[in-house]
Predict the structure.
Amino acid sequence: MSDVATPTAILKENVWTSNPIFMQVLGICSALAVTNLLVNTWIMTLGVVGVTAMSNLTVSLLKTFIPRKVRMMVQTLIIAFYVIIVDILLRAYLPDISRALGPYVGLIITNCIIMGRAEAFAQSNPPLISLWDGLTSGLGYMGVLLAIALFRELLGFGTLFGYQVLPNAFEPWIIMVMPPSAFFLLGILIWVAKSIMIKQGEPV
Amino acid sequence: MNKQSFVYTVVFTFVVAFIFVALLAGANAMTVEQVRFNQQIRRQRAILTAMDVPYETEQEVAEIFDNVEEVEYNGVSLLQLDFDGETRYAQEVSGGGVWGTIRVILGIQSDGERLLGIEVLEHNETPGLGGRIDEDWFKRQFREKKIIDGTIELNEQPGEGDFDPDSGRIDRITGATGTSTSMRRIINASLEEVLPVLGGER
């Protein structure tokens, strides 16, 4: 963390210089699992953004009341609360996507990014800036997952958001549909991002 | 008050847990009807699709579905619908796939000569491989498919779909032999149970 926590500094840090996925390498399992279709990725990451933002806000609001001994338990409780809300909403209003995401919505609870932000930021910062920190961390996660999903859906199905964009003659790459392909894409993405950072003279 | 004391910690944890759980219970109660409705409409659509009954709006689904009867012949439960001057049957069947249970609705003509169609209700197959059983082309292969010797068989080679209704065969999915054979097994198990009943009814 930098010492000066201005909104722009937080934005830059969470989306780029310490992006949860490609710098901290957190939340990888969902990055592999849900990224073969853009629509699913979009809804899933939207859920993560909402949960990270709201749980950060709530943890920050409650932080002076939370006894130290049960700090992490309460954080987990708050996170679980928002995740279950997301799950309930999806099941009621977006049943198809809820079915496609299956257990991964519930598993947002175990996403280390959310717990990490609650513990590292919200526990020691005022509510609004914590909300912003959660929001931008979620956006950092969303950006990377959507980038991976873009390539996986395009090469694996020849579609984007379900619309055919590549000609029918295109032979879909089955590997892109399978989870391992996200490993390769993530590796490439980390390589590209770090190369840019080195060029910019950022400490890596 | 000492916020690190044992009593405060216990009371605080209890109160916080209670509040959040109460809120969740409330949210669940508010959406439970909608969730049940979603599941019901999905099942109804699947059954009509499997019986090759066209529909457009949700209301139309509900109207047609009013005439679907649950019947039981010799201990075999079937769904029965008189549509377009003929009786159509469907059965909900399930069986093991590669990763989990596959649940399908199988539509059969009343004379047991041909299938009407199938619809997949639930599966956990690999997306893009076995998961393609839920794709339109795969399910379309079963339309009016002739049942030869009481079974539906797979073609030797995987393909893009066998749409000849008289072949009695369907194409297996490329790279998903396991799921394809599971589908064959599930469907034929259902036929073995249903065909004697349909034959014996007349």
